[in-house]
Every structure is written in C-alpha cells, then in structure tokens.
Design goal:
247 residues; alpha+beta
C-alpha cells in the first residue's frame, strides 16, 4: 500500500510538471504572437506621425505633443522588441551568435548617433578608441548597446547626461555606459539581470521595473563568452561595463 501511494504521488508530480511545461509554452507562444502583432498598429501610428510633421501650420503646443508621442512610440517599440527576444529565449531557442569581423568602435558610434536622434534632449557622449576589431555578432552587440544606453536614459536622473566609453585592455573590448541618478541597492544588483525581476525598493508605492532589457543584455554578453559588471553609488552614479574577449 505504501509503494502504491508513492507511485500515485510520483505520477501526480510528473503530470503536474508536464502541465506546467505546457502552460509555460502556451504563455510564451501567446507573448510572441502578441509582440509580433503589436508591430502593425505601431507602424501605422508612425506613418500618421510622419504625415502630421509635414504640416507647416503646427503650433508650438502641437509640435510638443508630437514630440512626446514620438518618445512614447520609440519606448513602446523597444519594449516590444525585448518581449519578442524574451519569448525566443524562453522557447529554448537561445541567443544565436553569428560572428564576423567588425570594427566595434564604428558600430558603437553609429548606435550613439541613432539614439541621440531618437532622444534629442538627452546629452549622450561617447569616448572610444579607434579600430577595436574582432569577431562578434554585429546585430547582437548593437542590440546590447541600445538596451544599455536606453536603460541609462530611462532610469537615470532626468536631464542628466549619459556617458558611453569603449576601449581595449588585455585582449578584451570594454564597453561601458554611465549615468547619474538613484543608485541600485546592493541586494538587487545580481537580480536585475534575471527575467522575472521587479524592484520596488521595499516601497510598493514607487515600483521601479527594470524590464527585460538587462536580462537580454546578459544573454547576449554570455553568448559572446563575455562578462557584465555593475557599479552603482550615490557619489559616482551607475555604470554597466561589458567585457568581450577579442578573437
């Protein structure tokens, strides 16, 4: 009788685990479809925005409204892209790395210029060493840099500059992004790189969500056999530093 009960319990646990896996898979497929389908209406709004900007009769107030809606559209596009990437990871497909010889300095400068155009009111500076070349996945590293820089914009002190630095040392390319603002508490520094982290700093009225961007950044860095580190203090600000082996 004891063995029979144990067998029943084991069968129950296997069945429950199988059900949970199916449930998670269905949830991930739903998120993937949702993220993909959301791109269509956003593209339509982008088109409408472009047409409205052609008007020569816009008041300053109307121009301000268009600028704020542009910011919201860009932010929404970033969130959807992160959602789709997160879904790919959770479906077990992982981060695919396609290496080719690239100039990381050139790519980082291009990304900073693009983000500066998207956020004209934010002072984004870049200090880079010329000709840091290696075999990396260009599109993945551009995604990593974009996530780190926009994360610094969204979570830094309003109006404060974002500083980007790229150099090489001891066979590694070092890419860092720095901003000023409320420091990230020591107890959650490792947790913000996970896919289920939301920080409320023990204050439920001021919830701060770091989103999926840092989780995706970590997966891209590790896919390149690299490491990411975080330092954050009230005096020095917050800096994310990525170390990538140069092959």
């Amino acid at each position: 009788m004891i063995r029979f009960n144990e067998a029943i319990d084991e069968a129950w646990m296997i069945s429950l685990d199988h059900f949970q896996q199916k449930l998670d898979q269905s949830k991930n497929w739903f998120l993937g479809v949702l993220g993909h389908d959301l791109r269509n209406p956003i593209s339509a709004v982008y088109g409408a925005q472009a047409i409205l900007k052609l008007s020569q009769n816009l008041s300053e107030k109307e121009k301000g409204i268009l600028q704020r809606s542009d910011f919201s559209l860009k932010r929404m596009t970033e969130l959807i892209n992160n959602l789709l990437e997160f879904t790919e990871l959770n479906l077990g497909r992982g981060v695919v790395i396609n290496r080719s010889l690239i100039d990381l300095s050139e790519h980082s400068e291009k990304i900073v210029q693009e983000i500066q155009l998207a956020y004209p009111k934010i002072d984004i500076t870049i200090d880079t060493t010329d000709n840091i070349k290696g075999k990396w996945d260009a599109s993945r590293l551009e995604q990593m840099m974009t996530n780190l820089i926009t994360n610094a914009i969204h979570h830094g002190e309003p109006g404060s500059p974002v500083k980007v630095n790229l150099n090489s040392k001891e066979g590694q390319a070092l890419f860092s992004v720095h901003n000023q603002g409320t420091p990230i508490p020591e107890g959650i520094k490792d947790k913000i790189f996970t896919d289920r982290f939301t920080n409320n700093n023990e204050d439920t009225t001021k919830e701060k969500n770091y989103g999926l961007g840092l989780y995706i950044v970590k997966e891209i860095v590790e896919g390149h056999e690299g490491k990411i580190e975080l330092t954050s203090t009230q005096e020095e600000g917050t800096t994310f530093t990525v170390a990538l082996p140069i092959h």
